[in-house]
Amino acid sequence: MTPDRRSFLLAGGAAVASLVVPEVALADAPADAAKFIADHEREIRPLEISAGLAWWNANTTGKDDDFKKKEDAQNKIDEALSKRDKFATLKALKTAGEKGELKDPLVKRQIDLLYLAYLEKQVDADLLKRITAKANSVEQQFNVFRAKVDGKEMPDSEVRSVLKSSADSAIRQKVWEASKLVGKAVEADLRELVGYRNDAAKKLGFANFHALQLALSEQTGDELVKLFDELDALTKEPFSAAKTEIDERLAAKCGVKVEDLAPWHYFDPFFQESPAVFKADLDAPFAGADILKLCEDFYAGIGLPVADVLARSDLKEKPGKSPHAFCTDIDREGDVRVLANIKPNEYWMGTMLHELGHAVYSSKNIPKKLPYVLRAEAHILATEGVAMQFERFSKSRAWLARMGVCVDSPDFESAAAKVQRNQLLIFSRWCQVMLRFEKGMYENPGQDLNRLWWDLVEQYQQVKRPKGRNAPDYASKIHICSAPVYYHNYMMGQLFASQVHHALSKELGTNPNQTIYIGNKAVGDFMKKKVFEPGRTYDWKGLTKFATGEDLSPKAFALDFQGK
Ligand SMILES: [Zn+2]
């Protein structure tokens, strides 16, 4: 995951009603647009490069000084984008574009995207301060909160470990209930935060914060709900079948009847991950594998070489370094790097395939002839989708065998396929709850949110609410505070991954279930031509159609993960 790379594309259409923006008269729309774009690039580009470098340095060294530099650069970018007079000019340019006065489609597209980037920063400064302070206060409460069980404090890791391993239902219940008390602690603050966020959105002319956030990334609530309804219809049965099998094992483990299973019987506090109830040693084949070489050979073989990326990257554990993984495009001129902490196991094989998927979908393969503003991935869901498309091979026996990785266990294939399928089905149901809850909460914050949360959990995750429970359990999920209106993009990335894989398989004339790309330069050609080269000239809908011939849909995803 690369949360820092969030793109701020903009959607046209939303009228800015309440925000007072002076009228700007344009002398010559095309010339004014060209000047605006050139000025923007001159001012913002060096700041973005220095923010990118400082971010890279901070994460590889852990030095406060670098974190400070990154923050300073970010503040300067925000300040530049918040200027009211510039926004007024942009608004006039956008209107000129809508009237057909900007003939060059690339210029019009840049103006539309810049409009969204500047719009986001037009939030009233006092209100923004209150939002930031409130969000920080909620995050801090999450940081210091410890579940208390029988008078003893329990760190989050211990909560997770009890839920993963205990066979005692009474202890599970106690720990789960204690962990949910953070929701009660932050409930009032979160409600205030939701109110402030809605106020900010309304001042910018939107119905609520959910609608604003979606508009900033060229999405609407209605189209997402339609897509997620289709996803629900196509995955309900396979999910139920997988859950029945999981529930039988969970019940047996804890010595209870299946009908008596409660939320605390799952292995994490929200049932967002697949409980590890099936025997599957996925790590064994990787014990002696050279993950870096496998990645380098694989990507070179499909015509998307990454040797230069790996040479610039920071890939081994060291003190002070971030324990996570990400990929970053520093200058949109090919300086692309990956941060990772590789160990010889399946997790890091998948993660490296994933991060290098981001790396090939970058200025390495987006042509320089595209203007700076358009020289990036079309949308967060598209780059996550490409990363996921490649990541999936770490669980394919056929792929590993062809890459020369020895897979001894005859059960690897079925175990890995089952883990993958269960994870994705369970994650898709969890995303249904998150999308619909946040939409409902921002649209109508005064409703009974405790009830809305459990209604959705029962409907989509098929987990029963504990009898008589009336608590703000939604507020115990930190993402609702700190990464709002975001989860759905990961799910849509999975849909994009499947759909592109199917389109590519069709082009290659192969069965999608057996298409493993190895050594086939046509794979790189397709990805470059159909996915990477357009950059941001299309929005996510346009890119999906251009790459696959169809609108984004859950059909290919359902085909990939419904079978046994
Ligand atoms: Zn990612």
Task: Describe this protein with a few key phrases.
mainly alpha; 22 helices; binds zinc ion; disordered N terminus; 564 residues; two-stranded antiparallel sheet
Describe the structure.
The chain has 564 residues and is mainly alpha-helical. It has 22 helices and four strands. The strands form two sheets. It has a two-stranded antiparallel ribbon. Strand 1 and strand 2 form a beta hairpin. It starts with 28 loop residues before the first helix and ends with a helix. The N terminus is likely disordered. It binds zinc ion. Zinc ion binds next to helix 13 and helix 14.
Poorly predicted ranges (pLDDT <50, ≥5 residues)? 1-17
Through-space gap between termini:
28 Å
Ligands bound to this protein structure: zinc ion
H/E series: HHHHHEEHHHHHHHEEHHHHHHHHHH
Widest sheet: strand ordering? 1-2
Mean pLDDT level = 92
Brief overview:
This protein has 564 residues and is an all-alpha fold.
Topology:
Layout: H1 29-61, H2 64-81, H3 84-98, H4 105-120, H5 125-144, E1 147-149, E2 152-154, H6 156-165, H7 169-179, H8 181-203, H9 209-216, H10 221-254, H11 291-301, H12 307-312, E3 326-329, E4 336-339, H13 346-360, H14 380-391, H15 397-402, H16 412-443, H17 449-461, H18 478-482, H19 488-508, H20 521-532, H21 540-548, H22 555-561
Antiparallel strand pairs: 1-2, 3-4
Helix pairs in contact: 1-2, 1-3, 1-4, 3-4, 5-8, 6-7, 8-9, 10-16, 11-13, 13-14, 14-19, 16-17, 19-22, 20-21
The protein binds zinc ion.
